[in-house]
Amino acid sequence: MDQTIQAIPQHWYVLLSTFLFSIGVLGVLFRRNAIIILMCIELMLNAVNLLLVSFSAYHNNSDGQVFVFFIMVVAAAEVAVGLALLVSIYRNIGSTDIAMLNKLKW
Amino acid sequence: MDYFLFIILSALTCISALFVVMTKNPMYSVLALVFCLFTIAGHYIMLHAQFLAITHIIVYAGAIMVLFLFVVMLLNLNKENEKHKSPMLRIAASVSAGMLFLTLLASLRSAMPGPYALPEDTGIGLVEYVGRQLFTDYLLPFEVSSILFLSAMIGAVVLAKRETR
User: Fold this and answer.
1) Residues 48..67 of A with a Cβ closer than 8 Å to B: which?
2) I want to staple B159 with a disulfide (CB 3.0 to 4.6 A). Which of A25, A84, B27, B61 is the partner?
3) Cα distances (angstroms) measured from residue B119 to each of A8, A9, A59, B6, B7
């Protein structure tokens, strides 16, 4: 295959994943619904995954891909526990609004 | 061609990610996140990580997002009744996220010498190679992650169980 066809600089992937990570942070700061906040955490994890895969591809080393695999494992466990917590919270206070969860503030 | 594909995929990723944050209905938010994860899988295929792309679709779109949808429906949250934070806090959130973006970019810009062209596909993203590495070099983390899964499973069941009194 011609070299000029495959010349996407890696900066672009760094830029894209930085942008995705910032959107995730924006969502965590911006929203009040705890489910959306969990989803934004997923978005941040995916930004980091994309960055790891791009480094692994550009350096021709598959260690990064194994790390991404483990991050997926941890994300799946985290989502299961987080959603169970949310269901339990909803059962107790009838809402998933984080403004209602201020008992742990002090 | 690759440029074209990359730009379209990235635009779709960014727009759907913004949609996740900005839309009011949690249901649309979940669906936008599913779309965003599919475009990220497309990026993985462009980066020759075929095994990870398939795993990503199965784990995220197949398991995690179904779990999210299930909880949104179970808690009856698919209404647009979420109160927003005060305008002051929302402006502060946007400004701080933008500043984080700029800071990360500025710090990564000087740390990016790296290769400029994607190397040829040498098969490091295929099941054969990743699997061999997973079961030789990374065997211990692989086994420990099963304990993590077991504890997460027990934790989820215990937390979501209705208390009997």
Assistant:
1) 49-50, 53-54, 56-63, 65-66
2) A84
3) 11, 11, 8, 16, 19
- Testing the interface with B: which of A3, A8, A100 to mutate, by most B Cβ within 10 A? A8
Q: B145 and chain A: CB distance < 8 Å anywhere? A: yes
CB B14 within 8 A of CB A16: yes
Residues 6 or more apart from A44 whose CB is under 8 A from it? A20, A21, A24, A25, A28
Choose the CATH number for B1-79 among 1.20.120.1200, 1.10.155.10, 3.30.1020.10, 2.70.50.60.
1.20.120.1200
Residues of chain B found within 8 Å of residue A66, distances taken between Cβ atoms: 130, 133-134, 137-138
pLDDT tens digits, B107-164: 888 777 666 677 777 778 888 888 898 899 999 999 999 999 999 999 999 988 877 6
CATH of domain A32-99: 1.10.287.3510
CB < 8 Å to A85, chain B: 159
| Domain range annotation of chain A | 32-99
